[in-house]
Each structure stands twice: as C-alpha cells, then as structure tokens.
Design brief:
heterodimer; A: alpha/beta; Rossmann fold; six-stranded mixed beta sheet; 11 helices; 10 strands; 38% helix; globular; B: ABC transporter involved in vitamin B12 uptake, BtuC; two-stranded antiparallel ribbon; 2% strand
C-alpha cells in the first residue's frame, strides 16, 4: 500500500453493541485505500463479520448498533444510512455463507443485483455479460435454480450479484467457507482479477489466514473485538507470532499444545 | 413418511381426485347435463376461493408471513367501495378504494412490519392476527356494520346454455363467468409481474432471503408496501365479486377461511397453485355435496375442503405446486 493512495473507507474507533447489552466491537479502526485489498483476520467470534456488517449497515436488522466511533466512505459519514443507500454509493456486502436466492435461477440472482440501478436494459445485459466474463462457469448454469448449484458456484453467484450493482467496494465475508481448497484458490484469483481490472476495492474477512495474506495487500488482525495487529500482508506473514498463532507454523518445529509456554506467550500478545 | 412424499404421490392424489370427479357419471344416478352443471358451478365457486387465496400467496411469497388479515382486507375493501359508491360514481369509488388499500398497506408496513423486521415467522403471523381484528373494527366503525348490497352492474340472471345439445340445457350464472374471466386476467397479470419485471424479481428475492436481499440494496420497506398493496387490490377484486354475490357483510371475511385449505392444496408459494387449488376445492365441494350428500347426510360442503387439506398436509405438505425446500447436505 503506497502512502499516496486515497482513502476509500475509514472506520474510526467503532463500538458495536447487540441487543443493548452485548459489547462485540471495542473500538475497531481501519482504513481501506482506493483499489486495495484489505484482509480482516481473526478466529471465530473475533468480530470480523460484525465489522463488515457495521460498515454495510446490516447490523440493525440483527438488533446491533454502532454506539461509538464513525464510519466514512469517501469522506462522507455513512453509519446512519440504509443498506440500500450504501449500495447506491458503491459499497456492497457479500455475506458469509453465500445467501443466494435459492429459488431464483443463477441469471435472475445476478439480475437482482442491478435492482438499485436505474439504467437501460441494454446496459444491464452488457453488465451481465461482463460478469459472465469473470465467471464463465455461471454462464453454463445460468438457467438452473441457485439452490441446486454447488457451493463454489453459489459463492461466484453471490460475488457476481454484487458486481451487478457496479460497486467501488465489496465487503467480502468469508468467501472460503465450506469450499474445497482448489475452489478457494479460484475464487481468490477472481477477486484479485476484479481488483486489477475493475478497480474494485475489497475488505475481506477471512479465517483462512494463509490464503488471505497471499492475496491481500494489507491486513488487520482482530481478537475479541479489538485490532491487535496490523501491517502489510508481507509483514504479517513474516511475523513470528502470526506464523505461530494463525498460520500454524513455528520456527521451533512441531510443538505440543500442552506446552504452557505457548499459552503464556499468546496471552501476553493479546493484552 | 418419505415414501409418501415421492413425486408420484402428486399424480396419485390428482388421480384419486379425478376419479372422484368422474365417478358420479358411472355410478348410475347422474345424468351428464346435470353433472356438467355441478362441475361448472363448482369451478366457478372455486375461482372465487382462488381470488382470496391469491392474496395470501402474494404476501407469503414476498415476506414469508401467513396473512391472517386477508379476509378482513376483503371485507374492508368491499365495505369501503360500497359506502363510497353512495357518494360518487362507480369508477371514482373504485379508484378511491384502491388508494385506500394502498394507504392501508403503507400504514401496516410502518406500524407493524417495520418494528418486527427479522423476527420469527410466528411473531409476524400473530401480528397479522392483530391486524385482522383491527381492520374489522375500523371498517365497521367507519363504514357501519349493516348488510349492504353491492351492485357493480354484474348480470344477475343465469343463462341457459347448450339448449340444443342437451334436453333443457345447463344453467350457468353469468356472474360466475365474469368472475372467472376477471380472476384469469388478474392471475395472468400477476404472473407477468412476478416473472418479467425487476420489481417482481426483487419480490421473489425477498421471499427467498430477507437479509441477502437487503445486502444487495433491495429496500425491504418499499417491497412490503408494494406487496401489501397488490394483495390489497386482489382483496378488492375478491370483495367486489363476493360482495355482489352475497352482499357486503361481516361474514364476507369468513371466505378467507376457505382460502386456507386452498393454499395448502396448491402450495403456499405458487400463484398457479392458488388457482388450481381453488378450482379443485370448489369442484370437490359441489360434487361431493350433490352426489355423496344423500348418503352421508349432507353438509359436506362445509367440511370437504378442510379434510382434503388434511390429506395434503399428510402426503404432500408443500402442496401441489409449492416450492420444494431446497436443502443442501
């Protein structure tokens, strides 16, 4: 990430509370530069999804609320907008677990993505072809109901559907979930491709740290609702702690988890 | 139960119903013209059930809510129309009533659905129960609770058709024929709307997955207003037809109860299902009343639909045309 890249999304010290009592994010700050791929890493329950939903404003539907901090997109405060307004401004979320419309065909799924845009039919057709260009596999299955397609195809449909809104930024939640490593690779290649060709920026929540760091340029590590570490993807993947705690490789070779030293070190790292 | 829920069960059920429909002809005590008359009468009353069921299906498709208030909406629309007609010509009253139904949809979205977003289906169902009672009371408070005759110029006199084919011909209510044509047109328009327009597609998307629809920028609030408006308009059409047949009165909303077995039969998510379900129930009711009634002591018309629905719940819970649950394992 070069310093002169313009900031696209800025999240500044947000705190999220669910149901008025459960404090999930305790001050998360992050930056996504124009044209960047930023990875949000961390274990289950660290707050990755909540962060993404706070940005896309899907939180309110789950009784969550941003109580502190602010979120700016291109310098404009967006934390009080509806998801629909946000999509119109170019921020769209691809939710964890794909969430395709199971009873609609693949093509209909893609077309729903263009709902917020008021453009001509021809233009939407052209966009459809563009999406098929990125996901040739979808074109073959355009007529089948999404519910009957494979997990990989559903993930592609979900990303393609988001692309139909012509976003400048996609919040991609756990694209590798439940997919074979080969498919994960394929999906990430497409993400990289989209980033390069369409200039779409990505904020990517991922448990698969290894893959995510390979494709992202910058990363944040979340633990218990806080950012505990940040850095360029390269710096993170070379960091000894990250290697040990997230990538499962350590310089000391195989280690026993019974080893109490491991826990003490991790505890120190977290505090 | 898996065994019973195979695809061929549908055909067996349809087969049994078909045999039942034609059996009277061979049982000896029926003459063909009389049978035809019963069949036509059944189909016509079936169309009317379909109209109410259609409103239910629309709302269920788009929001996953079983709208208990559909009957109340039928009554409310018919009451509004009949009272407004006292002050203005039919065409104007019709437009005003439509506007009222859209306003009702808007208010329901604002006051009931919006605060309950992402709640369990049962919670929303209970809410529609509340809406039903509220609309009931409101309608009767504003418009009065007498029985009104609704005359929108439908021909009341039945016609005798096919006189030269059968002796005495068969008697067909012209009112029913017009109702059938109206219903068919309505269904055609709705099918086009759902399949071909981007709003229709968005409605189906919301039906499948609220959250995903929201995430791609489909505004749920607007979709709900649209779908409740459309089903309000369907309720109006049903109200006009039923109202001019039975008079506009409190019992009009009970026709919604008959719509429940119709949607169970046809499937909660299928517009064609609502139509076919209505036809089957209307037909079954009339045939069994006329031909089985003498043996079982009559009154079959009142319970036939519910028993049929029970059978379907056992063997084919998603109905004839309902969307099957797509489960990925």
């Amino acid at each position: 990430m070069s310093d002169d890249a313009k900031t696209l999304l800025e999240v500044n010290g947000i705190e999220v509370i669910y149901n008025h009592v459960i404090l999930v994010l305790k001050g998360v700050s992050l930056l996504v530069p124009e044209g960047g791929i930023v990875a949000l890493l961390g274990a289950n329950g660290a707050g990755k999804t909540t962060t993404l939903k706070a940005v896309s404003n899907l939180l309110r539907a789950e009784r969550g609320e941003v109580t502190k901090g602010l979120i700016e997109f291109r310098g404009e405060r967006v934390d009080r907008m509806t998801p629909s307004d946000l999509v119109k401004r170019g921020v769209i979320q691809v939710m964890e677990g794909r969430h395709c419309f199971g009873h609609l065909t693949i093509e209909e799924n893609l077309l729903t993505g263009a709902y917020t845009r008021s453009v001509s039919r021809a233009e939407i057709r052209a966009d459809l072809e563009r999406v098929y260009g990125f996901f040739p596999r979808l074109k073959l299955r355009r007529g089948s109901q999404a519910g009957y397609t494979s997990g990989g195809e559903q993930q592609m449909t979900a990303i393609g559907r988001a692309l139909m809104a012509r976003p400048s930024m996609i919040l991609l939640d756990e694209p590798s979930m439940g997919l074979a490593p080969q498919i994960v690779e394929e999906i990430f290649e497409i993400v990289k491709n989209l980033n390069a060709k369409e200039k779409v920026s990505f904020l990517l929540a991922e448990q698969n740290t290894m893959v995510a760091l390979r494709f992202a340029d910058f990363g944040y590590i979340l633990e218990n609702g806080r950012v505990v570490m940040e850095g360029t993807a390269r710096a993170l993947s070379e960091n000894e702690d990250v290697k040990e705690f997230y990538l499962g490789i350590s310089t000391a070779g195989r280690k026993s988890f019974r080893d109490s030293k491991h826990y003490r070190r991790r505890k120190r790292w977290l505090s | 139960m898996d065994f019973f829920q195979q695809k061929w069960m549908t055909w067996i059920l349809i087969g049994i119903l078909g045999i039942g429909a034609f059996a009277p002809l061979y049982a000896g005590d029926a003459r063909f013209p009389q049978w035809l008359e019963v069949v036509l009468g059944g189909l016509m009353s079936g169309v009317l059930y379909s109209l109410v069921a259609l409103g239910l299906v629309l709302i269920f498709k788009a929001s996953g809510v079983f709208n208990f208030a559909q009957g109340a909406m039928v009554l409310f629309a018919a009451l509004s129309l009949v009272r407004l007609m006292e002050f203005m010509p039919l065409a104007v009253a019709l437009v005003v009533t439509m506007a009222i139904m859209v306003a009702v949809a808007w208010v329901i979205e604002r006051l009931v659905l919006r605060p309950l977003v992402n709640q369990e289906g049962i919670v929303l169902f209970m809410a529609t129960l509340g809406i039903a009672y509220f609309l009931d009371g409101l309608g009767q408070t504003i418009w009065g609770s007498d029985i009104y005759t609704l005359d929108v110029g439908m021909p009341k006199v039945p016609k005798i058709l096919l006189e030269n084919v059968f002796e005495g011909g068969i008697l067909v209510g012209m009112e029913d024929v017009i109702a059938a044509i109206l219903a068919a047109t309505l269904v055609g328009l709705l099918a086009l709307f759902f399949q071909k327009t981007s709003t229709g597609r968005a409605l189906r998307a919301v039906a499948d997955d609220h959250q995903a629809a929201q995430s791609i920028g489909i505004p749920l609030n607007r979709i709900w207003v649209i779908v409740w408006s459309v089903s309000g308009l369907v309720a109006l059409v049903a109200g006009i037809i039923w109202g001019s047949k039975l008079g506009v009165q409190f019992s009009l909303q009970l026709v919604a109860l008959k719509a429940l077995p119709v949607v169970i039969l046809g499937g909660f998510t299928s517009i064609p299902g609502a139509i076919v379900g209505g036809l089957i129930i209307g037909l079954g009711e009339k045939l069994s009343e006329v031909y089985l009634g003498p043996y079982l002591g009559g009154g079959i018309e009142n319970w036939f639909a519910y028993v049929l629905a029970l059978v379907f719940l056992l063997f084919r819970p998603e109905g004839l045309f309902g969307e099957r649950h797509i489960d990925r394992v």
